[in-house]
């Protein structure tokens, strides 16, 4: 019996740019230039593999419900979604950044409950509960850095790479919540049904990741 093609969910932007060289190294080529197309599903040179393009925060949803067999997603979005629904066999080591708390430069710790604005409300709630800190978590979808100066929040929980965005908005990083990089997640049922095909694909990408890491270690 022939199995259905494997569907891999990816995200446009930084993840796609950094994943493509790894896929190429694993012998996988897209038959079209994703950046120049408005299509959302693409064939590859492997008849058994298709690539779909979705928002990062939707990758876990597509993979959990099996519309995609596997996907590439930042650990931040994965932690926010909840990690139990998938296998997470591979850290690709790309799109690295840090998830941090941040506050206005030099600000004193607020007295009483701390108001925290974030896109990552589940992570923030968990983190501060573990710290035993009383917080009110406020959900924002973007421009978090404005929240303290506009009086909406005392602190934010956000992604930090160079730290320039924080600095430009009068904020400074406080505590590291997690080091972030992109991970491969796999649907649990697909891992059983398409075990041979997925294992081969994951092994190829795993080798490409190791080769890339060995290359950067010697530079
Ligand atoms: P930076 O100014 O270099 O610290 O970058 C911080 C901003 O860039 C954050 O607010 C994020 O929106 C975005 N960013 C940087 N790196 C990543 C990443 N790996 N994944 C998602 N967003 C990122």
UniProtKB/TrEMBL annotation:
<comment type="function">
    <text>Catalyzes the condensation of ATP and 5-phosphoribose 1-diphosphate to form N'-(5'-phosphoribosyl)-ATP (PR-ATP). Has a crucial role in the pathway because the rate of histidine biosynthesis seems to be controlled primarily by regulation of HisG enzymatic activity.</text>
</comment>
<dbReference type="InterPro" id="IPR001348">
    <property type="entry name" value="ATP_PRibTrfase_HisG"/>
</dbReference>
<dbReference type="InterPro" id="IPR024893">
    <property type="entry name" value="ATP_PRibTrfase_HisG_short"/>
</dbReference>
<dbReference type="InterPro" id="IPR013820">
    <property type="entry name" value="ATP_PRibTrfase_cat"/>
</dbReference>
<dbReference type="GO" id="GO:0005524">
    <property type="term" value="F:ATP binding"/>
</dbReference>
<keyword id="KW-0328">Glycosyltransferase</keyword>
<keyword id="KW-0547">Nucleotide-binding</keyword>
<keyword id="KW-0963">Cytoplasm</keyword>
<comment type="pathway">
    <text>Amino-acid biosynthesis; L-histidine biosynthesis; L-histidine from 5-phospho-alpha-D-ribose 1-diphosphate: step 1/9.</text>
</comment>
<dbReference type="Pfam" id="PF01634">
    <property type="entry name" value="HisG"/>
</dbReference>
<dbReference type="GO" id="GO:0005737">
    <property type="term" value="C:cytoplasm"/>
</dbReference>
<dbReference type="GO" id="GO:0003879">
    <property type="term" value="F:ATP phosphoribosyltransferase activity"/>
</dbReference>
<dbReference type="InterPro" id="IPR018198">
    <property type="entry name" value="ATP_PRibTrfase_CS"/>
</dbReference>
<protein>
    <recommendedName>
        <fullName>ATP phosphoribosyltransferase</fullName>
        <ecNumber>2.4.2.17</ecNumber>
    </recommendedName>
</protein>
<comment type="subunit">
    <text>Heteromultimer composed of HisG and HisZ subunits.</text>
</comment>
<keyword id="KW-0808">Transferase</keyword>
<dbReference type="GO" id="GO:0000105">
    <property type="term" value="P:L-histidine biosynthetic process"/>
</dbReference>
<keyword id="KW-0368">Histidine biosynthesis</keyword>
<keyword id="KW-0067">ATP-binding</keyword>
<keyword id="KW-0028">Amino-acid biosynthesis</keyword>
<feature type="domain" description="ATP phosphoribosyltransferase catalytic">
    <location>
        <begin position="55"/>
        <end position="204"/>
    </location>
</feature>
<comment type="similarity">
    <text>Belongs to the ATP phosphoribosyltransferase family. Short subfamily.</text>
</comment>
């Amino acid at each position: 019996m022939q199995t259905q093609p494997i569907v891999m969910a990816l995200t446009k932007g930084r993840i796609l740019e950094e994943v493509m060289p790894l896929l190429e190294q694993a012998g996988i080529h897209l038959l079209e230039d994703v950046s120049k197309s408005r299509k959302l599903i693409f064939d590859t040179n492997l008849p058994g593999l298709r690539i779909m393009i979705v928002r990062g925060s939707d990758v876990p949803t597509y993979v959990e419900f099996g519309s995609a067999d596997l996907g590439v997603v930042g650990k931040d979005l994965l932690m926010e979604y909840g990690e139990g629904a998938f296998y997470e066999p591979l850290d690709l080591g790309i799109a690295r950044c840090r998830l941090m708390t941040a506050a206005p430069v030099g600000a004193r710790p607020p007295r009483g409950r701390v108001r925290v604005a974030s896109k990552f409300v589940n992570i923030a709630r968990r983190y501060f509960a573990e710290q035993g800190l009383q917080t009110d978590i406020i959900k924002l979808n973007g421009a978090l850095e404005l929240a303290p100066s506009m009086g909406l929040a005392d602190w934010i929980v956000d992604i930090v790479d160079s730290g320039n965005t924080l600095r430009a908005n009068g904020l400074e990083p406080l505590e590291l919540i997690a080091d972030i990089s992109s991970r491969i997640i796999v649907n649990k049922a697909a891992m059983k049904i398409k075990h041979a095909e997925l294992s081969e694909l994951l092994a190829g990408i795993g080798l490409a990741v190791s080769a890339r890491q060995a290359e950067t270690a010697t530079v």
